[in-house]
Amino acid sequence: KQEVTQIPAALSVPEGENLVLNCSFTDSAIYNLQWFRQDPGKGLTSLLLIQSSQREQTSGRLNASLDKSSGRSTLYIAASQPGDSATYLCAVSGNTPLVFGKGTRLSVIA
Amino acid sequence: ETGVTQTPRHLVMGMTNKKSLKCEQHLGHNAMYWYKQSAKKPLELMFVYSLEERVENNSVPSRFSPECPNSSHLFLHLHTLQPEDSALYLCASSHTGGTGGRNGELFFGEGSRLTVL
User: Fold this and answer.
1) Any chain A CB within 8 A of the CB of B114?
2) To bridge B79 with a disulfide, which of A92, B18, B30, B108 should be the other Cys (CB 3.0-4.6 Å)?
3) What is the pLDDT of residue B104?
4) A97 to chain B: nearest residue by CA?
5) CA-CA distance, A56 to B67, in Å (whole number)?
6) Is a pLDDT exceeding 60 seen at residue B98?
7) CA of B97 to nearest chain A CA: how many angstroms apart?
8) What is the DSSP letter of B113?
9) How far is A50 from chain B (nearest CA, A)?
């Protein structure tokens, strides 16, 4: 059974800092991995999708990497801004629909 | 605007009420999902519909009853719920996959916040 773990559970950084969020999964036989952002009381917004054959994806200040063999993905956020404050969720798709981690709650302090 | 719309956004119901949550997607996707989000827990998959056919329900209690009349609409019918069912219910859709996984990128609605008194 696929399990997804996100570390840390919460993170607080000053504005402008670069940061890395971590995601690990137990079954490396994945189809793709998706990073989402969730604001309080809202739905999930898709940030990046990495196919299992890819190593990384970039969108603006966001860069997500995937190391399937070690069961790890990282989300790198450059030059963080207060508007980046949210919960970031990682989810993997394999032979079952998406399995989610509990998320990392990020606070960027101005 | 993700192309997935959920109504109502907030719902308060008693344990004996019957209500329904509605989801509509305008993305031309062929798979739709219901997820439950409770505090301190990961999102839990409740139901998956692929090409309007339900193929997985993950042992959800029968007091939750899904309906997918066509590929653009998904309902979650609620009856005799318990207070522990209070949560954010999220609908999602994707272009491929669904039941057997291997899904394309998922797009979520804003969710329906349910409170059971």
Assistant:
1) no
2) B18
3) 81
4) B101
5) 37
6) no
7) 8
8) E
9) 9
Closest CA in chain A for residue B4 = A43
What does the pLDDT look like over A39-85, one tens digit per residue?
998 899 999 999 999 999 999 999 999 999 999 999 999 999 999 99
**Residue B59: its pLDDT value, please?**
82
* Contact flag B43-A100 (C-beta cutoff 8 Å): yes
Q: Bridge-partner residues for B14, per DSSP?
A: none
Distance of residue A17 Cα from the nearest chain B Cα, in angstroms: 27
- Scored b (16 or more CB within 10 A) or e, B5-25 reads ebeeeebebeeeeebebbbbb
Q: Report whether pLDDT(B64) > 80.
A: yes
Nearest to A25 by CA among B42, B40, B47, B91: B42
Q: Which residue of A has its CA nearest to B98?
A: A97
Residue among A98, A100, A104 with most chain B CBs within 10 A, to mutate: A98
- Partner-chain residue, chosen from A4, A41, A93, that has the shortest CB–CB distance to B102: A93
**Helix, strand, coil share (%) of chain B residues, nearest 5:** 5, 55, 45
**Residue contact B109–A49, C-beta within 8 A:** no
- First-to-last alpha carbon distance for chain B, in angstroms, is 31
Mean pLDDT, chain B, integer: 89
How do residues B1-40 score in pLDDT, each as one tens digit?
779 999 999 999 988 889 999 999 999 998 999 999 998 7
Chain A partners within 8 Å of B54 (Cβ): none
Q: What pLDDT, on a 0 to 100 scale, did the predictor assign at position B2?
A: 77
